[in-house]
Amino acid sequence: MRFKPRLGVNPVIVKELRSRMRGARAFVNLTGALLLLGTASYVLYRLVLATAQYSRSPLSPQIGQTLFIGLAFLELMMVCFITPAVTAGAISGEWEKLTYEMLMATPLRPASILWGKLVSALSYVFLLIFAAVPMASLVFIFGGVSPRDMIKALVILVAVAVLLGVVGIFMSALLRRTAVATVLSYLAVLAFVIGPVLVFILVAVLRQAEPPRLILVPNPVSALFSALTPYTPGDGASGLFMSLGMILGGDLQALTGSGNTTAIPRPLYHYSLPLYGAVTLTLYLLATRLVRPTRRWRIRWKEALTALALYLLFGGAVALAFVSTTDRYEKASVLAVPTPAPQRVVVERVVVAPVEMPRPVPVPTELPVAASPLPAPTPTPSATPTLSAQDPGPTAPAVARTTAETSTARVTVTPTKVAGTPTATPDLTEMEVDTWSFASPDGKWRAHGLVAFPVNGREKYYTQLKVEETDGAAEWTAVDEWSRLALGYTTPQPLHWSRDGRYLYFTNRPVPDGCAVFVNGSDLNRLDLSDGSVAAVVPHSGLWLSLSPDETTLAYIGYGGRGLVVRDLATGAERETKLDPGQGYAAGHIVWSPDGTALVLTLAIRTCSTNWAESVSVVRVEAATLKQATLIREDERLFTTVEWPTPDKVLLKDDGERLWWMDAGTGQVTAHDG
Amino acid sequence: MIAIETRGLTRRFGKVTAVDSLDLQVPAGALFGLIGPNGAGKTTTLRMLAGLLEPTAGEIVLNGYMADAGWRKVRRQIGYMPDFFGVYEDMLVWEYLDFFARCYDLPPDHRRQVADELLDLVDLAGKRDAYVQTLSRGMRQRLCLAHALVHDPQILLLDEPASGLDPRARVEMRELLRELGAMGKTIVVSSHILAELAELCDSVGIIEKGRLVASGPLEEISRYARQGRTLRLRVLSDQKEAEAALRDQPGVGEVYKANGFLEVEFLGDDEATALLLATLVARDVQVVSFSEVSSDLEEIFLRLTKGEVA
Q: In the prediction, which pLDDT does A32 show?
């Protein structure tokens, strides 16, 4: 008999769509799904409005992003629930209804039956996905989401739907029992969604270290979030999704390991999509064998070559995609275990920062205590800089101007980065840039800070700190790096200019998500103004840091409720004392006495209530004994400590920016006469 | 011309041999009955003929084509109706036929015409727009037959087409098959209900435990089986005497009493039968009637498979 080419549509598709779309059921289901999504969006919208109204960042894009991520997440869940249900019965249903033999007796190829079943089942899932697009497009009203994001989300949703569809149909063809196939398909979905997370946690617990991101690659939720995690930090409801996204999207890496890499790693979904593709292709090819009534595993040369060609084509496409995007991402592979840079114990930054920040509301930068570089106190004769004597010397290999000075490394100082080395300085014209600059007290140096966000990117941001000599003789680049956006971001800012004019101490000041009252930094780094080398002195440890006038001791408010920590920079020895006046307090504004024997700090009580705090206490702590004395107790004028210029008088500022004097011994407050 | 031929066709399921070296020949245009008890291998044979099951050994030739690697070509010449079949829910009768017409690549304009013609043929024209699941069992059976006809196959393989039907539906089905036979199609019908096949088929194959016990035109089979025959006689005199007289004669097997008749199993040709009657009369048995019971297929079947039925 002569061969007749197949014309027209696959009969199975016609048949399946006729019965699937018949009557009200399909449309009732679709309407139900859209109503669910609509309701969820509305609830999310109200949540964002309710929780984010005092936020610093513009509200509209936050709403847009939160709604979009929420919708995409819900749709993903829907796909995970519905796809196995519509595909697990595709082949087994024919067996159970005893119609399979009738199909097999026709010239219809088994592969056409499989294809028809898959396409018709998936077209229903696709209908659910794409029917939500017009609704999801509402997020464009709010902004913060680009059509590119929408396409990314759709691609991932479709890829997951196809994967789960093929898993379902494979089970159906393999087991020939709808009930068993359905159960196993859902188990497979669970294995994809929950399995990687469990393994991730297990590895983390067993190794006591950050597990490789690779583990999360199979997880569709991780893939989705890795494609969508926005760069604008949000509060409340958006914060919830963001945290979820961070955890599942593998951004832990960004938070912990790659904070100071100069390029960004590939998002997880770049690995998830090829994995899904490979699994889909393999299961589909296996299923084409399983649906055959006879000669199941007798594979002919032609068929084997076709399969091989498909794999090569697929592999080639993936390789091409990877090569063509390789400049955008770091060379570092996802396979590499993120080993935190030895000089930085950064894990705390992830875990502690959100914990440290009390309940939402006020705005750090609008506070009178907004961080600014501390004015360098007037040098006191007793202050003898000792650090330089213990300087570990230029440890960075590629320093432009190397000093010959070397000495024993007694200080816990290790180098982080080399000033002046070429890095990925971006084209700032296409970014949202924020700059600031500070002059050194002697007027010889100016520090210029910069943070820049790509207009369309949401994965990384760029920070820079340059210090130039006023006469133009030298310019150092202390910070020049790309970082992954996490819960908020950090900006490099000067903290303290050393008295001998040799060093600039600077910190990465977090601009956190949520409410944090006192923030002026997180870590302590030192730029040697004579050769431009940078050394990390103290890792991320707290949100408020203050160097003693003689620069030998750092006082800071430690993460995790440690209270006040006093660290001897020479030995690294720390002493700490709790500062707990009850629930909901924050401490900061540490001010050293001119002789460095005592310090005062501000304790904000019940922060982030209606104002940034309900009341404020001022506490004096003796540096040697850590003995505390409360000089002002729960005063509602909301004083903050500003400066301790003379041994007996501390300068305060109240909520209305007026200045007051406080007796350093008794705590008596008198009006400032100036 | 031979439409269907099998040579040494064998199918094993594990240790069970369902079909054992079956050599079958069905002439073109024949209405062939495949008869055997349940589990004899009828369905297995038909499924192998339809290309749904791979023979363990042996070969199948359909209309001169070897049904092997190229069975997809052969498939277009076969219409197959399984013994147990389901129907799709949420499907109209015409859609059902349209679907199978699409499976056979019928051009769109032709599909509708074929569907309507077939619905007329199987007397379901009035049910064209009914849901398949609302049809009665007999209607479904006819619809299933119609589906096997959408591509106008030369060979029809019908597995127990009359099973589960009420007597009237059986008659309808039988008429339908006759009609199809008259169209010149080669039809293989399997059944374990023999009466209707005896009336319907012009040749039969008797299958038992996977083996073909006998095969050929119905008369040949009958003649073959008729070496043993059943005689029925009525006597005026004492039945016991008659019985005793009968038992003495050569070739006489069992003697039964039934409704005032005596039924005698007798092995012998017509001459021997005449001699038997003469002997009885000579022995003063008053014979009122003496006739041969016309053996129907069922009887032949029982005789041929005697002792082999599990």
A: 92
pLDDT at A329: 67
Q: pLDDT tens digits for A507-545?
A: 988 876 556 678 888 889 999 988 888 888 888 888 889
Q: Who among B75, B86, B105 is closest to A4 (CB)?
A: B105
Measured in whole angstroms, the distance separating CA A524 from the mean position of its chain's CA atoms is 22
Cα-Cα-Cα-Cα torsion A559, A621, A658, A447, nearest 10 degrees, comes to: -50
Q: Which residues in A have their CB inside 8 Å of a CB on B?
A: 1, 4, 6-9, 11, 14-15, 18-20, 22-23, 96-99, 101-108, 293-295
Residues of chain A positioned with their CB less than 8 A from the CB of B102: 8-9, 11, 14-15
Answer for the pair A197, A177: CB distance below 8 angstroms, yes or no: no
More confident residue, B163 or A34: A34
* CA nearest to A226, candidates A266, A274, A262: A266
Q: What's the rounded Cα separation, in Å, for the pair B117 and B278? A: 61
Helix (H, G, I), strand (E, B) or coil at B145: helix
pLDDT at residue A169, rounded to an integer: 94
* Closest chain A C-alpha to B152 CA, distance in angstroms: 12
CB contact under 8 A, A104 and B52: yes
- What is the ipTM metric for this complex? 0.72
Put simply, the answer to whether B47 touches A101 (Cβ < 8 Å) is yes
Sign of CA dihedral A372, A373, A377, A383: positive
Which helix (H) or strand (E) segment holds residue A256: the answer is helix A252-256
Answer yes or no: is pLDDT of A316 > 70. Answer: yes
The residue with tokens 């800070």 is A449
- What pTM did the predictor assign? 0.59
Q: Residue for token digits 């004083």?
A: A639
Q: In this complex, do A101 and B52 lie within 8 Å of one another by their Cβ atoms? A: yes
- Determine the Cα angle at A369 with ends A367 and A373, to 5°: 130
CA A332 to each of CA A324, A424, A463: distance values in angstroms, whole numbers, following the listed order: 16, 15, 21
Burial of B289 (0-12, 13-18, 19+ CB in 10 A): exposed
Cβ count within 10 A of residue B129:
9
